[in-house]
Amino acid sequence: MAFNVFCVVSCGESVGIMFNTLFDHTGFAINITSIVISLAVLMAGIYSLNLPTFLQAFNHLSPVKWAVGNLAPYSMQGVTFSCSVSQQGPTGLCPITTGEQALQLYNLNHDPKLYLVGLGACTIGYRLVSFLLLWAVKR
Predict the structure, then answer these.
(1) Which element (helix H / strand E) includes 65?
(2) How far is CA 18 from CA 6, 25, 114, 138, in A?
(3) 33 contacts 19 by C-beta, under 8 angstroms
(4) What CA–CA distance (Å, rounded) separates 6 from 50?
(5) Number of domains in the chain
(6) Which range marks the domain in which residue 87 is found?
(7) Strand partners for 80
(8) How many CA atoms lie within 13 A of 86 on its CB side?
(9) Model pTM?
(10) 98 phi and psi, to 5 degrees?
(11) What is the spatial distance between Cα 39 and Cα 65, in angstroms, rounded to a whole number?
């Protein structure tokens, strides 16, 4: 969890560095940074299940996607759910009764270690790109 938080915060700082480097007006850079980060959070895989191809490619650049992909399997394994009578389907069963079913529904049933490596690579990539951009502009 701590590594996930560190990586997401570091990537947010890198995005802020990039937009502050590209735009002279700090307020505008902060607004653009906020928009980009908000879109990344919405596309991480919890709010939206089926993204268009273009957005799926963009989503693979998002550290939030990798953090959700890493944390979800650990937090949902072994969890059970119940529902009220009004929420039960026509068969009398709850639509989702286990965390594994929820992971399958959200397409998050995969190896979380792979997503941890992806998050680390994403973090290094963001910091490297922000450094290179800052170096190129200030040169």
Answers:
(1) helix 63-76
(2) 18, 13, 27, 12
(3) yes
(4) 28
(5) 1
(6) 2-138
(7) 98
(8) 0
(9) 0.84
(10) -130, 160
(11) 11
